[in-house]
Amino acid sequence: MTWGIRALASLGIVFAIFTGDVRAEDGPGARAGASAPVHREQEAREVMVRHSADPPQIEVVVDTRAAPVAVEVPPEPQDPGTHFIVELNLGSSFTGSVGFAGSLLVGAGGRLRGFPPIFYLVGEAGFQLGGSDGQIDGARYVDGREYGDVSLGLRTYLPILRDLRIFLDILPGATFVTSTLARDGLTELHTSGWYAHFAFGGGVQGRIFRELSAGLRVKILATDDGLDDAREALGIYTPMPVVLSGTVTWHL
């Protein structure tokens, strides 16, 4: 019986060598012996063989544990962002009366590393109608103006929420102004020419898609024309043109 037990124990040890670790536990008639752990890519096994002569028994214990597997996760691709904008503005001009206003703005720029605002060098070409009419000392007058302006300046975006931003525009440039001033009993006055201007604008935009946003914009145009002195002499108030427009902006 003893030799049979020893033969089965030897077979168990051979099986353990081919499948994992061998570890003998202390006990009556136990053999002490161990081998270095065998590491595999997906799992590691540990086999323990225990035998005793009284009473005759053999116990083979297989311990299977999942070994840690290092999985390399590729980094998420970063959004390169956009560097160009093309914007269409359509709305109304308020200069005593309400007139049409529109412009096309293009720009190039981006965000500085670690700095939230986004800066664009922008150029804008716009057109607006303005003027006013009324009566002074019982005499009716009509004041009509047309503005065609070109500007080059800076736009700054400041993010508020993920898809909502405010922006500010500083746009110096030049305006071609055509003005007409007519009053009952007086000769109609007419002038046209280029004048320097300074425009200041601002508004809010919401991102609809990655490439498209929409919003509202207010723009104030400070400029001159050749009939300012005549209006002042007649007592006609001349407010600065203010444009309120909706914006559609493509981000490229």
Secondary-structure blueprint:
Blueprint: H1 2-19, E1 21-23, E2 43-52, E3 57-66, E4 84-94, E5 98-111, E6 118-136, E7 139-161, E8 164-183, E9 189-209, E10 212-222, H2 228-234, E11 242-251
Parallel strand pairs: 1-2
Antiparallel strand pairs: 2-3, 4-5, 4-11, 5-6, 6-7, 7-8, 8-9, 9-10, 10-11
* CATH overall fold name of the largest domain: Porin
Structure class:
mainly beta
Number of structurally distinct domains? 2
Molecular shape: elongated
Q: What is the first-to-last residue Cα distance?
A: 87 Å
Number of alpha- plus pi-helical segments: 2
How many distinct beta strands?
A: 11
Q: Helical amount among residues, as a percent range?
A: under 10%
For the largest beta-sheet, the strand count, sense and barrel status come to:
8 strands, antiparallel, barrel
CATH class label of the largest domain: Mainly Beta
CATH-scheme architecture of the largest domain: Beta Barrel
**Series of secondary-structure elements, N-terminal to C-terminal:** HEEEEEEEEEEHE
Could you walk me through the main structural features you see in this protein, from its secondary elements to its overall organization?
By secondary structure, the protein is mainly beta. The radius of gyration is 43 Å and the shape is elongated. Strands 4-5-6-7-8-9-10-11 form an 8-stranded antiparallel β-barrel. The protein has 2 domains: 65 residues, no CATH class; 168 residues, Porin. The N and C termini lie far apart (87 Å). The protein has 2 helices and 11 strands. β6 and β7 form a beta hairpin. About 13% of the residues have low confidence. It is 10% helix and 60% strand.
